[in-house]
């Protein structure tokens, strides 16, 4: 699963390398608008006649991509690092499948670490019921729940969470690296 995602991550990083140099911030409205200059992007990459890329850039998914990833100050992620800093590595690996596979595996490992930051926490599987367990008659009914005790536990948990310091995520906003200009990829 993670390796397939890593392959698509690399694909889109290659496809959109240099996109940040074609973003324009328009401030004529009360709220600034980020516009992607498609003609400049396609022209600088020499892909004006590429129907596939034109359709991708005209799609709603790409418009969402620009609005989400366009702001110059936001939380950066693995995709931003690939687009900004791994351009030469991706280009060098194009003719070398073993290196490309190694990079995909590294990306997959990073994706796994991002989704599972605490690998020491193990999830225990619920054992399957034994054969014939449904035929047992001696199963006790589920006990009635004491509503007062449930409320007490909820109040205790709320009191503890209000007194605890706020949880901090590792995501900190930063200036998004622009990466190399589009003209470099021709």
In brief:
This protein has about 190 residues and is mainly alpha-helical. Helix content is about 50%, strand content about 10%. The chain has a two-stranded antiparallel sheet with strand order 1-2.
Could you explain how this protein is built, in words?
- By secondary structure, this protein is mainly alpha-helical.
- It has a domain at 1-116 and 171-184.
- It is 49% helix and 8% strand.
- The protein contains 8 helices and 4 strands, in the order H-E-E-H-H-H-E-H-H-H-H-E.
- It has helices at residues 2-15, 38-45, 51-58, 60-69, 78-85, 87-93, 97-115, 147-163; strands at residues 23-26, 33-36, 73-75, 173-175.
- The strands form 2 sheets. Strands 1-2 form a two-stranded antiparallel sheet. The chain has a two-stranded antiparallel sheet with strand order 3-4.
- Strand 1 and strand 2 (33-36) form a beta hairpin.
- Helix 1 packs across helix 7.
- The longest helix is centred in the middle third of the chain and has 19 residues, at 97-115.
